[in-house]
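S1.2 Input.
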Amino acid sequence: MGEKKGFFGKLVAGLQKTRDNIISGVDSIFSGFSAIDDEFYEEIEEILIMGDLGIQTTMSIVEDLRKKIKEKNIKDPSECKQLLMDSIIEQMDLGENAYEFENRKSVLLVIGVNGVGKTTSVGKLAGQMKDEGKKVIVAAADTFRAAAIEQLTEWSIRAKVDIIAQQEGSDPAAVVFDAVAAAKSRNADLLICDTAGRLHNKKNLMEELKKINRIIDKEYPDAYRETLVVLDGTTGQNALVQAKQFMEVADVTGIILTKLDGTAKGGIAVAIQSELGIPVKYIGIGEKIDDLQKFNAKEFVDALFHVEDKTEV
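S1.3 Output.
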């Protein structure tokens, strides 16, 4: 439990900027308004939109909040905080958030544009899975950046996992072909492929991903598949736009949201799940290997509102 609490503490600290941005404002509404009227709801709307929850998500949350307040016949604004938290959590509830790949022989394709923390996320994930006793292979299929190959090689050494790589500029699909062969012959539990995400050239990216997917389908048909998109939390609504663009070129099954500790835009985690219906599976709040953790909506909202087991006075 200690480790979990440790991450919750980091999450609380990491969401500080977002909390300052959203929650202090929300709290002042709950304490400052004497009646629940249209102005009360408008203020909440404005603060949530400013916190990068996005217009659509905010409208859904506030609509749900109105319904809850009416059903419970609540008249005092100060009683609405928990209801707002519940509404936010419900927006993010996409049913059973699957980590099925942990239980089967799996291939994870990890895509994302440069600079979002993609290769680092692959390295951290590989290290964590290795620590859980799994046999992991990473593939350096982001071949257009020598730095990506070097970086992943460093992570593989740190995490003590095998890496399959070729030189810069080689065909990403060829790297994946080699990696699949290695995964099968070494009986790996998990193959994680670091792939490119050149959204400025969507047609090429789509062709490349199709080619990679064809190889995996043909060479490793029984493997369970995940396609995770890495997004930089500090970019807020822009991350949402990026996610939508990736959904056009790939069958995205989950999101890794990084750098939440550096931003006031942590509300984007809510918007992504609510608007796109794709689960945020991991969040990153720091540099260390264990600073990438499975995403838990309730924990996230508790940390956002800084609600510990004891109610704060």
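S1.4 Remarks. The first helix runs from residue 2 to 14.
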